[in-house]
Amino acid sequence: MFGAPRDLLDKNIRKHVSLVAFYAWVGLGADGLSSSCYGPQEAFLALGQHTQLAVFLAIATALTVGIISVAYTQVIELFPGGGGGYRVATELLGPKAGLVSGSALVVDYVLTIAISVASGVDAMFSLIPPNFQPFKIWVDFVLVGVLVVLNLRGMKESIRLLMPIFLGFVITHIFLIIYGISSHSSGLSLLIPDAIAETQNFSIVSGGAVVAALALKAFSLGGGTYTGLEAVSNNVHTLAEPKVKTAKYTMLFMALSLAFVAGGITLLYLLWGVQHVEGQTLNASVFSKIMSGWQIGDVSLGGYVLPVVLALEAGLLFVAANTGFLGGPAVLANMATDKWMPHFFSALSSRLVVKNGIVIMGILAVGSLIITGGDVRVLVVLYSINVFLTFTLSLLGLSVHWIRSRKGKWVRNLLVSATGLLVCAVILVVTVVEKFSSGGWLTIFITSLIIWLGWSIHRHYLHVEKSIENSLLLTDEDDNCPKCENAPKVDYSKSTAVLVVGDASSGMHTLLWVLRMFPKVFHNFVFISIGEVDSGTFNEETAWRRMRRDSKKMLKRFENYCHRHNMPASSYLAYGTDVVEQLTELADKVIADFPNTIFFGTKLVFENDDILNQLLHNQTAYILQRRLHVKGRNFIILPMVVS
Q: What is the DSSP pairing of strand 496-500 with strand 597-606?
């Protein structure tokens, strides 16, 4: 279903799975561009009867896109390895700020999937009779499932399939915006003077504070327009070389397209006097009005073109949902590397995608759709709060960085990041206050829950590490054995202890217990290990080389230790994404070379075992034991007790 495994040792594999700027614009930029399907609508509806403010809203939208994009270009330059808002907050504000930012990003990407799918289905159902509305939520579930399968095949494959939809949206919407605005060109020159005059009248009647408050409210509630601008900085590691240059071009494409489409659609709402119609998006309403005069003889073209446009709009939203499956698992993998999330979130499948992250993002997206009933207006509130929490922390980190460093063009950079910080902080505060009772409390609760979960996981992993260190009484000689001259030779026909080594601590624990429990029983000692290739290792060439070097060094230390104690020793090493599968293959090779073998491995055992412990620590030893028992081989698991 998901395709053949990829070869990790292929030197061109990273180039094959990485994205050039155009693919990145499609895969990552779709999230930002698709927000024009619901962000401008929320802002325009918030204006109520005072739609003349939409002119200033369109200008503010374009400027805000520019400011945030330029600020995140700084993030790309400072953190070319990716990580975006999570890495910025972690490195520049501290690990705790990173946990908050990462948790918000996880919720953000879950809601990216949910809101994009829900909004896309809304666009599709705008042309369907109202009595079919109850079926929308089931269509949402099916589409999330399809996207999960596509992304388990690989991000480039999913992007290639969805690219025609993206390009169709861009072409049709740019044409409709230009056509729709030019159709009202006679009144276009009077648009700003009329808006100023009407705003002045509104101010005289209601007061300047009321006007400012309404404009700020509409601007803030339209914050969903800017969601997705952080996607490029989060996924720099997935881009083609040179990564920074590719990321900058992608960000430029995204900013220009989003500013034009979002600002243009806002102007269309005003120029064409669009009104909200139940069961229909504002985009569907305004495009219907624009196409109402399209005739060829007695045939109305609008009736044929509008379904195509809305289908492309729905399609783009599904492409944008794909961004959640690209960015969300990447954030989970980064947090797992820093021990804020279970380690298995950094694991890759044989297709070199973050498989567990993709699956959990799909499950959580379905859950959020069930909780909200697929209501886009509720989802966009939950979405915006988390996005702007991440924006605020990232831009605060950038501002602190430029104040501390004061290098290069730091004044200009500080001005950009500080301006972006002010805008994002205002949008965050206004959205939380304005929509607290309409779903804002829910997103705060969910994000806080993930923060607490991350903190608990982190404490658990640190506690386990400390407990293991305290339980191992190793000398410097044991821990760093020099090479032994005249090492004893292995005898393949004699009894052999095969030790499965995960790391230096567990490996030495296993070896010492074998020597104590079976004195003078084994002639040979063989150490087998797998260099696990996870998301962090695969995405960075230096990390990949370091992992291979450290794995070889660790096994050589065990060999040297045995040789210094006059015990013949050898080692086997392989690399892969599936540790159990690779260990099984290595075990077959060892059995072929050493027929008289017994396997040994270590498993962490907790005094107070619970579901959390089982979830946070893999069951590799048990699975490998079962596989070797099927082959008629003995595998003894030695406990490493964690108090």
A: parallel
